[in-house]
Amino acid sequence: MKISESLWSVLRDLRETCAAGDERGPLLTMRHDSYAFVDSSDAVQASDVVFSGAGTSLDGWTPVPIVDGGLVMQLPPGADRGLVRILQLYVPLCSAKHFFPDRPFVIAHMAQSVDGRIATESGNSKWIGNEANLVHAHRLRALVDGVIVGGATAKQDLPSLDVRRVSGRNPARIVLSDTFNDAEQLPVVEGRKTILIRSSNGIPGHEYGADVKVITYDGNGTESKIPVVLELLRAEGISSILIEGGPTTTESFLSAGAVNWLQLHISPILFGSGKSVLTLPSIDAVNEAIRFRNAFYTGMDDGIMITGQV
Ligand SMILES: NC(=O)c1ccc[n+]([C@@H]2O[C@H](COP(=O)([O-])OP(=O)(O)OC[C@H]3O[C@@H](n4cnc5c(N)ncnc54)[C@H](OP(=O)(O)O)[C@@H]3O)[C@@H](O)[C@H]2O)c1
User: Based on the domain organization, do 84 and 51 belong to the same domain?
Assistant: First the structure.
């Protein structure tokens, strides 16, 4: 999925504008679960236009107006549907700061094989997604405040979680783990902080430099602690989070009802074995399944990506 540098710079600009905006500014009404696209023939009040400032403009587009508490983008006649799909994917993230007052907006993204595996039995997962997915993942990183991985992924992959494939700001790197204590092993990324989140029962942390912050919460590392973890991150100024796995971490956020958008990149490869993308408590009937709401798919070269609210 290609995005021109100028469109990407508009999106980054929009994100900075939203991030700098008042808590109660008009952009507040852009919600993670409410947006729509209308044709330019539909009546939308020009006075409702709020997408402005910071020199931001989308060529040929009427800026983004607000209708009934949702986000409406007015398409110019003959609008390019590919562009619509790009905006559908990224614009809500740009305004994520305003979705919830007391906790961050959470999107979880993972790359899986068609048979639902995210790593081999030995834990190798580089790379299941294709190049388009890697670039997309870096765009997501550039639009959120922090990226979380679990302790096993931190130990196995020593991820940099930076935005080296796109231009933009590196998000905070957040590791959720009671046993990971090797932040100095992680690749150094200039000008960004690493946050280690652990319970008070975790192994005592050692002293780190100013670019590593250890946050300790009370009790064991269980699902019930996820809301506490989110509150603590919000207090750190983190208002949007990307969960990049692994499955154990994503599952615990899902089980706690803390994931707003789930996004799965499906690659045309078959493992036939390996680690499952998600293992949740068993259900008896299909109607007990977690069904994505407002789901949409995006073509990613030879793969596809499904995004939805959960
Ligand atoms: N395909 C992909 O998109 C993708 C993405 C990421 C990772 N991976 C692969 O996934 C594998 C690792 O996944 P995994 O499921 O085994 O482990 P993981 O989710 O990376 O890490 C699990 C650990 O994270 C901590 N943790 C998770 N949820 C927690 C919670 N609610 N409260 C407190 N701590 C929590 C715990 O660490 P402590 O035990 O230290 O407390 C837990 O043992 C690796 O092979 C990696 O390469 C694949």
Answer: yes
